[in-house]
Design a protein that fits this description.
Length: 299
């Protein structure tokens, strides 16, 4: 079973920094954002590979996940085995690449990886966000296992005036994740999905639960994406193909706390994520606080 990470976007929100370097390689502490997402994508039982949907304009991502023996040897010859090990670890992750050279939307990006899925269910993880404890997809897999392998998406409450930025679900709460008593829009509640709409107007939103960017999907979605027309924003939307999937198969949504994960989608969110990760890292926290204390007053 594989996980897909779409990574062909232009990174316009990070210009000028992303003029000649992909946003996926921006660091959070000493690791690029996409490595956190890859590690999260490999966490659920049964996932043995990650397919990154890249564009040919960003060869640096492939270079990052490839071995460079000369470079690793050079580090070792200088006594920097710890760094060589870290470099080697990233290159040892089971990552492969397919290409999306036209920005036709998330549905199209996912479909670009169709031939790599071997007809199995698969995860999709959007790359502007990562979950440090890597448990969100693991919990989604538990919900799927309890429902015959049905598709499961992570959702979370969003204020009414922001629904038009996201995919929104319709449905009702049917149970809770084992070990919790959650209901409605509480973390751990499980909804049976009856409809999905991409970027609705506030008055047309069927609920306040938005799709967070973590999907566990039935292989049937690839057949539907093959002839999916354009939707919101003139793009081929994954949400629209999922709405069609609902007519054939059951789908569930797990309510999550989006703050379980870290957002790296804008410069401010990325900076806050670096701070959060530094404060949580025993090897960095003291130096970080000292550095932050120089010239910064919070509040
Ligand atoms: C995509 C999805 C949307 C989802 C969102 C989460 O939208 O199409 O359903 O809610 O990611 O970030 P995008 O952010 O690409 O517009």
């Amino acid at each position: 079973m594989k996980s897909i990470i779409p990574a062909a976007g232009l990174g316009t929100r990070f210009l000028p920094a992303t003029k000649c370097g992909p946003k996926e390689l921006l660091p959070v502490l000493d690791k690029p954002v996409i490595q956190y997402v890859v590690e999260e994508a490999l966490e659920p039982k049964g996932v043995d590979g990650v397919v990154i949907v890249n564009s040919h304009d960003k060869p640096q991502i492939e270079k990052y996940f490839a071995h460079d023996e000369e470079f690793e040897q050079m580090l070792r010859s200088r006594g920097k085995d710890d760094l060589a090990d870290k470099v080697c670890e990233a290159a040892s992750l089971p990552v492969s690449f397919v290409y999306q050279d036209e920005p036709k939307g998330l549905g199209h990006a996912v479909y670009c990886a169709a031939s790599e899925m071997d007809g199995d269910p698969f995860f999709v993880l959007l790359g502007d966000y990562f979950v440090p404890d890597r448990q969100m997809c693991v919990n989604m897999a538990k919900v799927s296992a309890a429902h015959n392998g049905a598709s499961v998406i992570a959702v979370a409450p969003v204020p009414a005036d922001q629904v038009s930025r996201y995919g929104i679900i319709a449905g009702s709460c049917v149970e809770s994740l084992p070990g919790t008593t959650a209901c409605d829009e509480e973390e751990g509640a499980v909804w049976k999905v009856t409809g999905l709409v991409e970027k609705p107007k506030p008055e047309e939103a069927p609920s306040h639960l938005f799709i967070v960017g973590r999907y566990l999907l039935s292989p049937r979605i690839m057949d539907l994406l093959a002839d999916q027309g354009t939707g919101a924003g003139g793009e081929i939307q994954l949400t629209d193909a999922m709405e069609r999937l609902l007519k054939e198969e059951e789908m569930y949504a797990l309510v999550v706390d989006p703050d379980q994960g870290c957002d790296t989608g804008t410069p401010a969110a990325w900076a806050a994520t670096n701070a959060r990760m530094a404060l949580a890292d025993p090897t960095q926290v003291e130096a970080f606080k000292e550095a932050l204390g120089k010239g910064v007053r919070l509040g």
